[in-house]
Design goal:
It contains 9 helices and 12 strands. With 273 residues, it is α/β, with parallel strands linked by helices. The longest helix is centred in the first third of the chain and has 15 residues, at 58-72. It binds S-adenosylmethionine. S-adenosylmethionine binds at residues 30, 45, 52-53, 58, 61, 82-86, 88-89, 105-108, 111, 137-139, 155-157, 162-163, 165-166.
């Protein structure tokens, strides 16, 4: 039968992936970390028993979290990434020719080190000269920050443990303060099926701060119900569903039509916000 990775999503629903080997395991200062080799999705990062990202479908998530706000912005130059320690999001951000500087604030050095070693396809751009990696709590960093950013992307673990503070009106208020007048905040906001409560809470918390707040969806095959949601707050009121700047070539999932259609919500999601 072999080894299986098993993640519970509800009492009667689990995600199971057949595992060829466990490549690395460590208890970091913040979480239990594992890198596993799966049969169908390649290597995968697991934190506290929760699947984070896999080599086979990580681009569905990272492309949509990066390119929707960055292509909706007229000229994104300064980007802040909170979380995202595997490096996949930074890789996508750097594909925008106007981006001059990316700061990635990741609380757990162990995640970056493990992903540099075992997931080079995701972490390979962290050494780009435009990237600054800061090991700190994103909540504290944003609270104390005196920089100005055009786009802030929050690529966090699910709400709980160190990431809890990343889903609050206070944190989103601090993000609003350090955004330029036409800036966007975009964050991963869970899925609408088993975690509708968390999705609604995050969406409403962003909405309590930003004049224009919209939810959009992506498909992420390995996540329990395939749907995943993101919430974007627009400080200056620009509609995030519009494509305004250059679209990176060679994407797997993102394209201008997917960008626009991602904001068309089925009633079961719209009615849960
Ligand atoms: N990018 C992946 C994906 O495709 O879903 C997963 C997200 S990434 C691994 C989540 C990161 O958020 C983790 O590396 C975790 O350490 C980091 N994180 C959690 N809380 C944080 C905080 N308060 N400040 C900074 N980083 C945090």
């Amino acid at each position: 039968m072999g080894m299986w990775f098993d993640e519970k999503h509800a009492d009667g629903t689990h995600l199971r992936l057949r595992v060829r080997s466990v490549l690395f395991q460590e208890k970091t200062e913040f979480q239990d970390l594992a890198i596993i080799e799966t049969e169908d999705f390649g290597r995968a990062l697991v934190l506290d028993g929760v699947l984070q990202t896999t080599e086979r479908d990580e681009m569905f998530y990272h492309e949509m979290l990066a390119h929707v706000p960055l292509c909706a912005h007229p000229r994104p130059r300064r980007v802040l990434v909170v979380g995202g320690g595997d490096g996949g999001l930074v890789r996508e951000v750097l594909r925008h020719p106007t981006v001059e500087a990316v700061t990635m604030v990741e609380i757990d050095r162990g995640v970056v080190e493990a992903c540099r070693r075992y997931l080079p396809g995701l972490s390979g751009k962290l050494d780009d000269p435009r990237v600054e990696v800061v090991f700190a709590d994103g909540v504290q960093y944003v609270r104390d920050c005196q920089q100005v950013y055009d786009v802030i992307l929050v690529d966090s673990t699910d709400p709980g443990g160190p990431s809890l503070g990343l889903f609050t009106p206070d944190f989103y208020g601090d993000c609003h303060r350090i955004l330029a007048d036409d800036g966007f905040l975009a964050c991963q906001t869970e899925e609408p099926f088993f975690r509708a409560e968390a999705m609604r809470g995050a969406y409403r918390a962003v909405g309590s701060v930003f004049p224009v707040t919209r939810l959009y969806v992506s498909m992420v095959p390995v996540y329990s119900v395939w749907y995943w949601t993101f919430t974007v707050g627009s400080k200056g009121g620009l509609d995030p569903a519009e494509v305004r700047s250059k679209v990176p070539a060679g994407t797997v999932y993102y394209c201008p039509d997917v960008h626009r259609s991602a904001f068309v919500l089925p009633p079961f999601i719209r009615d849960r916000l």
